[in-house]
Amino acid sequence: MSCAAVDLGASSGRVILGRVGGGELTTTEVARFDNKPIRVPRGADDDRLHWDILRLYADVLAGLRRASELGPLDGIGIDSWAVDYGLLDAGGELLGNPIHYRDARTDGVLDQVRAELGARRIYATTGIQFMQINTLIQLVAARDSPALASARRLLLIPDLLCYWLTGEFGAEVTNASTTQLLDVGQRRWARELIRDAGIDEALLPRLREPGETIGVLAGSARDQLGGHATPVVAVGSHDTASAIVAVPATGTRFGYISCGTWSLVGLELAAPVLSEASRAANFTNELGVDGTTRYLRNVMGLWLLQESLRTWQSRGQQPEVVELLSGAAEAAPFRSLIDPDDPRFLAPGDMPARIAEVCRETGQPVPADRYQLVRCILESLALAYRRTLRTACELADREVDVLHIVGGGSRNELLCRWTADACGIPVVAGPVEATALGNLLVQARAVGAAGVGDLTAMRALVAATQDVHEYRPGGDIPAWDAAARRWSAIFER
Ligand code: LRH
């Protein structure tokens, strides 16, 4: 089968053509385009961070056209990051550019929502980690906005693009689960909670499972893509859901990190963990493909490094990532540590300055150069992965023998090696393209590709066809143990 995966990531969007089935799984990137948020003023001293959604739709169409020129497509599937949405009016027209979750309008709203609705109730129903980026928090922040008042429908970003391609409304369930508006046990909208949050429940469309066919290309999208009635399939439209489909695990005793801008660290379970201890540890239960639960925590991830790079570049400096990493490898170990999940790291901005501020506040040396800063970020991430994985295992009463790192971060040898050392178990790194592969596998199965069966079979196909690299724990393990204790003493007081 020949399928096109559209994957919209934190800095770029891509269209990837996949050949799937009969033991084959190959990918070719046919288009890559910017997906950068745009800051737009809304008055003298305020602004909003927006998606550039129409530009993106045009780029998606152009990419799909290129893919279809290489041969007929059997399917199209779209994934992107979680929580963000567009609002439509009664005529089905988009009401303004969607707002990016890193916009500051949700600052302080998380505590308000917890106080209004009760943290225990929200967690017992939705099972979702409390983060100010969640759709529930975004909607409460926008409760009095004119756009929400005139909205008749809310579509998460992949669902919005699929609507433009097919004319069909819906909410794919893996992404819907990240909104904190879904009853995770029942796999349906948490209507009472939504009402009590002051949100119009009629905004939320029918849920669909990954693997359902949404519709076929229609209207102007079909005209622009050669007139074919290509099926558009609901994949795990949450990028993390797609990535975890493509973890090349051979057994069940594995942990994973979907490692990119965010690091999603956790386990795959058959059912959610909604205990009080799980709420206190702020773990999330996102819904996965084929009825699975992704039990994990969001760790701030390579965003810290990406924003540091952006800051340096904005000052006219052009540090090479390879050089930064080799310099970090030579820098003194464990000189300063940060909590990657410090909320002040969420918004775009001067990350080196924010990290320096944290070091000063906690009585640690401020990184004196870029290498020390990169070392501080990567060691702090490896320690966060260790803590998160161990806590997930305790809370879910599970053990793991191997940690899979998939996504762009699996290319970062230093991070993978330090993660293996910090966690004390082997790390299997790769595939880099896990999200696109998971997207392709689910749609290929839906349109009848040969030999693409359940998750185990899909993962076996990934393991047989994609490059992975194994890192065994081998560094100074007692030093990692001591650093983990030091971290707890500083940040868990
Ligand atoms: C990763 C991701 C993650 C979400 C965040 C908003 O790209 O989808 O799973 O929590 O972005």
TrEMBL record:
Residues 255-446 form the Carbohydrate kinase FGGY C-terminal domain. GO terms for biological process: glycerol metabolic process; rhamnose catabolic process. It comes from Actinoalloteichus hymeniacidonis. The keyword Cell division does not apply. InterPro entries: ATPase_NBD (IPR043129), Carb_kinase_FGGY (IPR000577), FGGY_C (IPR018485), FGGY_N (IPR018484), Rhamnulokinase (IPR013449). Signal peptide: none annotated. This is Pentulose/hexulose kinase. Gene3D superfamilies: 3.30.420.40. Coiled coil: none annotated. CDD domains: ASKHA_NBD_FGGY_RhaB-like (cd07771). Its EC number is 2.7.1.5. Pfam families: FGGY_C (PF02782), FGGY_N (PF00370). One of its GO terms (cellular component) is cytosol. One of its GO terms (molecular function) is ATP binding. Keywords: ATP-binding, Disulfide bond, Kinase, Nucleotide-binding, Rhamnose metabolism, Transferase. It is an enzyme of class 2 (transferase). Residues 5-245 form the Carbohydrate kinase FGGY N-terminal domain. PANTHER family: L-RHAMNULOKINASE, SUGAR KINASE. Belongs to the FGGY kinase family.
